[in-house]
């Protein structure tokens, strides 16, 4: 199973050109959905206005060398290591989901475009990484969903309770789950059930990318910019109006309240 490229096997029924077109359409939806989100929520306008205001009110000038150091620190601490999460369990779950999703997407593109048929033998390492990435996304997502969410772990609500903010994590986890089951059934030769889970996989993946304007998908692009702005504001002596880390405790009426989602 871990050495079988599921997309190459699927080429016996579906033309590689159709699979490649689907991937391109999904990529276009990511770009279009993110741009729509930026325009609709005025995220870019807010960021640049806040950046200019920070520079105007700066008590200390940030030099080019310091700016590079801040950018590197942001990339390593806030992006690569998800330093915004103070809670270790949340950080690990987030890193599993984030890196798993990235590995899964990159290897999907490689397999669909570079090794679309059994004749173009797929390196075992690429196939293994696809399965590992999908499994990492599942582990991180399910761990977060059933054991870490505040409304489940602390407030006792049902883990099956859904809100619009849950759209991204739910479609991501279900999509990778359906993909793994489809690949396993296809490798086992169970044609009927493989087609059922292939359809579920495609439907869920389409919803994941179509729903970007209404989900938290685009946050992965906004968060690095927000983290950079916060670090620059701290360096030049101005007060950033960005919120504290996602799981840092805040006092509301004498109690503690935490953010729920990634």
Biggest sheet record? 2 strands, antiparallel
Q: How many helical elements?
A: 10
End-to-end span in angstroms?
A: 31 Å
pLDDT below 50 for ≥5 consecutive residues: which ranges?
A: 250-262
Strand content: under 5%
* SSE order, one letter for each helix or strand: HHHHHHHHHHEE
Which sequence of strands runs across the widest sheet? Answer: 1-2
Helix percentage range? 55-70%
Q: What general outline do the C-alpha atoms trace?
A: elongated
- Which secondary-structure class do the elements indicate? mainly alpha
Structure report:
- Helices cover 68% and strands 2% of the residues.
- It is built from ten helices and two strands.
- It has helices spanning 6-10, 16-41, 43-56, 64-80, 88-114, 124-148, 150-153, 167-188, 191-210, 219-235, and strands spanning 250-252, 255-257.
- Helix 4 (64-80) crosses helix 10 (219-235).
- It starts with 5 loop residues before the first helix and ends in a 5-residue tail after the last strand.
Features:
262 residues; mainly alpha; disordered C terminus
In short:
This protein has 262 residues and is mainly alpha-helical. Helix content is 68%, strand content 2%.
Any chance you could write out the topology, listing elements then pairs?
Blueprint: H1 6-10, H2 16-41, H3 43-56, H4 64-80, H5 88-114, H6 124-148, H7 150-153, H8 167-188, H9 191-210, H10 219-235, E1 250-252, E2 255-257
Antiparallel strand pairs: 1-2
């Amino acid at each position: 199973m871990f050495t079988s490229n599921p997309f190459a096997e699927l080429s016996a029924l579906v033309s590689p050109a159709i699979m490649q077109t689907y991937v391109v359409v999904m990529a276009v939806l990511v770009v279009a959905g993110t741009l729509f989100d930026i325009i609709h929520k005025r995220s870019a306008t807010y960021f640049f206005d806040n950046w200019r205001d920070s520079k105007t009110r700066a008590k200390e000038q940030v030099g080019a060398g310091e700016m590079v150091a801040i950018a590197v620190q942001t990339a390593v601490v806030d992006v690569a290591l998800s330093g915004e999460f103070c809670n270790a369990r949340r950080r690990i779950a987030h890193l599993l989901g984030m890196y798993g999703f990235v590995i899964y997407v990159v290897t999907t593109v490689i397999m669909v475009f570079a090794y679309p048929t059994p004749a173009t033998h797929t390196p075992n390492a690429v196939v293994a990484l696809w399965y590992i990435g999908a499994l990492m996304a599942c582990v991180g997502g399910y761990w977060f969903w059933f054991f870490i969410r505040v409304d489940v772990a602390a407030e006792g609500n049902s883990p099956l309770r859904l809100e619009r903010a849950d759209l991204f994590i739910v479609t991501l986890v279900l999509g990778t789950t359906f993909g793994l089951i489809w690949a396993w059934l296809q490798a086992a030769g169970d044609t009927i059930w493989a087609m059922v889970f292939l359809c579920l996989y495609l439907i869920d993946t389409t919803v994941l990318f179509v729903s970007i304007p209404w989900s938290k998908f685009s946050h992965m692009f906004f968060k690095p910019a927000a983290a950079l702005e916060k670090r620059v504001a701290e360096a030049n002596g101005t007060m950033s109006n960005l919120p504290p880390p996602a799981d840092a405790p805040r006092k509301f009426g004498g109690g503690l309240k935490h953010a729920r989602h990634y």
